[in-house]
Amino acid sequence: MNRKILYITIFCAYIMSVLASCSDDDSFSTSPYNQLTFEVDTLSLDTVFSTVPSPHKQFLVHNKSNDGIRIVNARLENGNQTGFRVNVCGTYLSEKLGYQVHDLELRKGDSLRVFVELTSANNLKTLPQLLSDNLIFTLESGVQQKVNLKAWSWDAFILRNLIVNKDTTISNLHGKPVVVYDSITVNENATLNIAAGTTMYFHHNAGIRVEGTLKLLGEQGNEITLRCDRLDRMVSNLTYDNNPGQWGGIRILPSSFDNTMTYTDLHGACTAFRCDSSVNATRPKLSIANSTIHNLKGSGVWAENCNISIENSQISNAIDSCLFFRGGNVNINNCTVVQYYPFDANRGPALAFANAKTNIYMPLTMYIKNSIIKGYEDDVIYWSRGTLDSTLNVRIENSLLRTPKPLTKDSLMFVNCIYENTNDTMTSGRNSFVMFDTDNFFYDFTPKSSSQAVKSANPATSLPFDRNGKPRNVEFPDMGCFETPKEN
């Protein structure tokens, strides 16, 4: 009997402790010392384009006190005057609600989530303008706490589904950026000129489709930039701008010829240039000079049966081939073609070429001079021929290559080349170039003074100036597109 009483007593004590626990969890304090804890004091949306909805950001609001806290209301201090849109714990602070929410309960140890977006009005200014508002939480105790919301709003020219039917020029008129939605189409018999100094921001999947002619007319010191429209960060060490696959790139259709790109920085696209098969492989399809193509979730230049010329240019870091040619006529001089794509180990080669598609023979003539072709893998140059006795009319000379030295008849393709030692697979990039920051994804592919590419180009065929317009050493020029600075 005594044992039963003991069990009942223990059970009742347990129930009382549970009830007491529930009672503690359900208690709410009006003490001004019990306050909310915010994940951030200031939420920045970075720089956004006026009239364009921003990506959302979020933060948590915690109750770390020993009692529950009642939030009388959470409101935007300026209502809808600045364009911020806020959702607090599943409730959108709409005009109907007066841009506020009432009577929220946050028990001890709990948290709620806040989402913030912005669509700002045109500010009629050339430079970005600061927008700011406060999200104010008023507690039952009367205490007010706030989180500052801020962003820089930048007026821009918005191009939506632009169709170019006649010769047209796009420029940064009055210093405003150009933002592209739904792509640009250049019809046959029309030329689209992009003026020097223009920066074009492409929305996700937007790009340029060329049936006529595209002229990217950058100048030394006044370059063109083609990039994505996200101005914020994915994570602390990676901006969207530095992330591949953010926009669609440029597609050159069979009817298009005489396209040029000079002093242009194109990065963060899917495939930078896809050049579809030409009916006339002798007519110039695409000429690239003094330009940079970097960080692609596709290829740098992909061309089939096209006449392609690339000089003094950097083509780097693509998930597929940095350069791919099937058939056609290709001339490359003083280029840096490097495959250190950091986001996927299953990356393609730096250079790939072929003279056939399935069983269809597609003659390829390719001449590469004074260039650097490197990457992580032991062999970054792939090629294939249609039949075993099909000749590849390819010549690569006076270049630094990361590929095994050929011991067969293919050795006739390589003349006076330097073959990199493959024992330093993971450190070759860092040891070879001025900047190779794989933590923050920053690269400067200027050769270090100790690089085998320095003073190794052919002075008879090397170009007189490098990618940046710097004069090359007349007697001992460097391979690649960048001339290494002289040591004092």
Mean pLDDT: 90
Given helix and strand content, the structural type is mainly beta
Please, what is the oligomeric state? single chain
Number of helices: 2
Note the topology:
Layout: H1 2-25, E1 37-38, E2 42-49, E3 57-62, E4 69-76, E5 84-88, E6 91-92, E7 100-106, E8 111-118, E9 129-139, E10 144-154, E11 157-164, E12 168-170, E13 178-186, E14 191-194, E15 199-202, E16 207-210, E17 213-217, E18 224-228, E19 233-235, E20 238-239, E21 247-252, E22 259-262, E23 264-267, E24 269-275, E25 284-289, E26 292-296, E27 301-311, E28 314-318, E29 323-333, E30 336-339, E31 351-354, E32 356-357, E33 360-361, E34 364-369, E35 372-375, E36 381-384, E37 393-397, E38 400-401, E39 414-415, E40 418-419, H2 428-432, E41 433-437, E42 442-447
Parallel strand pairs: 2-10, 11-13, 12-14, 13-15, 13-16, 14-17, 15-18, 16-21, 17-22, 18-23, 21-24, 22-25, 23-26, 24-27, 25-27, 26-28, 27-29, 28-30, 29-31, 29-34, 30-35, 31-36, 34-37, 35-38, 37-39, 38-40
Antiparallel strand pairs: 1-3, 3-8, 4-7, 4-9, 5-6, 5-8, 9-10, 19-20, 32-33, 41-42
Essential attributes:
488 residues; mainly beta; 26-stranded parallel β-sheet; 5-stranded antiparallel β-sheet; 42 strands; 6% helix; elongated
Describe the model.
This protein has 488 residues and is mainly beta. The chain has two helices and 42 strands. The protein has a 26-stranded parallel β-sheet that branches. Strands 1-3-8-5-6 form a five-stranded antiparallel β-sheet, with no helix packed on it. The chain has a five-stranded mixed β-sheet with strand order 2-10-9-4-7, with no helix packed on it. It starts with a helix and ends in a 41-residue tail after the last strand. Residues 1-13 and 18-24 have low confidence and may be disordered.
